[in-house]
Design a protein that fits this description.
By secondary structure, this protein is mostly helical. It contains ten helices and four strands, in the order H-H-H-H-H-H-H-H-E-E-E-H-E-H.
Length: about 210
């Protein structure tokens, strides 16, 4: 458990460092999360870092058990009047160890995938620690879609990481760096050339 939290804290700190150097005028750029700008995603990371198990349940009930509505309320609550204000809030929660009622590894998925939702529109690049990315990808591969995972999708293809010793699933092969595989498994777009293999189409467009 301590290992996971150390990874989570490292990712939060790295994102704060990157965002300090970013052009705050670009925080209105759309992110890969439909309907959310970069600024909204940063606010969401603040909100999820503050979330406790009890607080999550209470908030979900108040949102009429509508997960999207709960997330929208969290973004509205934690989004500051300026990017600098929101960044200050993110900095303040860097070392928190609270979590919703979910496997702890979901905190890694949250920080890495949303980290890319923020970085890619801003032209920022991070070399994520491979163990953190692999741990996040393994969680997604064993978690059903109804709980935010990609178990059903990964069951139809074989994910093969080209930067580490990792292969998951059965079916047509999809090759790429572990980060690109994680993003695709989470429904995020990847750049041309990041993924290859006969299963790539099925992973990018599961319908």
């Amino acid at each position: 458990m301590d290992d996971v939290w150390s990874m989570v804290h490292a990712e939060r700190a790295a994102l704060v460092d990157d965002l300090q150097r970013s052009d705050h005028r670009r925080w209105d750029e759309p992110s890969p999360c439909p309907g959310w700008a970069v600024h909204d995603v940063v606010a969401h990371l603040v909100d999820t870092a503050r979330t406790t198990r009890i607080g999550f349940v209470v908030g979900l009930a108040r949102a009429g058990f509508d997960f999207d509505r709960q997330n929208a309320r969290g973004v509205a609550r934690e989004r500051g009047a300026t990017p600098a204000a929101t960044l200050g809030r993110l900095r303040a929660v860097t070392r928190r160890r609270t979590t919703p009622p979910a496997p702890l590894d979901t905190r890694l998925v949250e920080e890495i995938v949303h980290g890319e939702d923020v970085r890619r529109p801003l032209g920022l690049v991070r070399a994520y620690p491979t163990p953190a990315v692999v741990r996040a990808l393994r969680l997604q591969a064993r978690t059903p879609a109804s709980f935010g995972g990609a178990k059903e999708l990964v069951a139809r293809v074989r994910l093969v990481a080209t930067d580490t010793d990792l292969a998951l699933g059965e079916g047509p092969e999809v090759r790429g760096a572990a980060l690109a595989l994680l993003l695709a498994a989470c429904g995020r777009p990847t750049a041309p050339g990041e993924l290859a293999g006969p299963g790539t189409g099925a992973l990018r467009d599961p319908a």
